[in-house]
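Here we describe the complex-level prediction in full. Unlike the single-chain runs in Section 2.1, the two entities below were treated as one system.
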Amino acid sequence: ELKVEQNPLFLSMQEGKNYTIYCNYSTTSDRLYWYRQDPGKSLESLFVLLSNGAVKQEGRLMASLDTKARLSTLHITAAVHDLSATYFCAVPEGGTSYGKLTFGQGTILTVHP
Amino acid sequence: DADVTQTPRNRITKTGKRIMLECSQTKGHDRMYWYRQDPGLGLRLIYYSFDVKDINKGEISDGYSVSRQAQAKFSLSLESAIPNQTALYFCATSDPRTGNYGYTFGSGTRLTVV
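The structure predicted for the assembly as a whole is:
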């Protein structure tokens, strides 16, 4: 059974600081997804990581994937208040159910002045 | 119009009542999913459908049923609602033909069972 775990679950940051969110998963997968959710809103796609060593960057966020370690990181550089949200990673199931996503618990990020 | 539309957006219902949540999509995707979101638990899969004739249980299907009326429509029913089904429910679609299995989400239905 695929399990996806994020840490930390809660992250309170000061503006201007750097931090990393970790996403570990329990079975082999060749890809991983990151989503962002603003309070009371739906989830929107942030990054799609499609191979080992993949790195994607947008603005102050950078995501990477290490399929051998079954680990993805979401790095935040010089945080700003607008990054406050909940971040989810998600991994597809294998086999005949391929494509069905299992989500991590989510990391609630709060950026303070 | 949104690509994936969920109705209603908010609903308060009483214990024991039957309720249906509806999802429709204009993306032409074959695959549709129902998840529920609870604080600290992330999103958990209730049911999924890879095409109109294919419906599968997810990890938390007890107390729920679904109907795939057409490629574009996937409804979730709570036959007899109970308070611990209070949650935020999301419908999602995906299209593996693009090579990207990522989801497009609806805006969510906030359900409260009292």
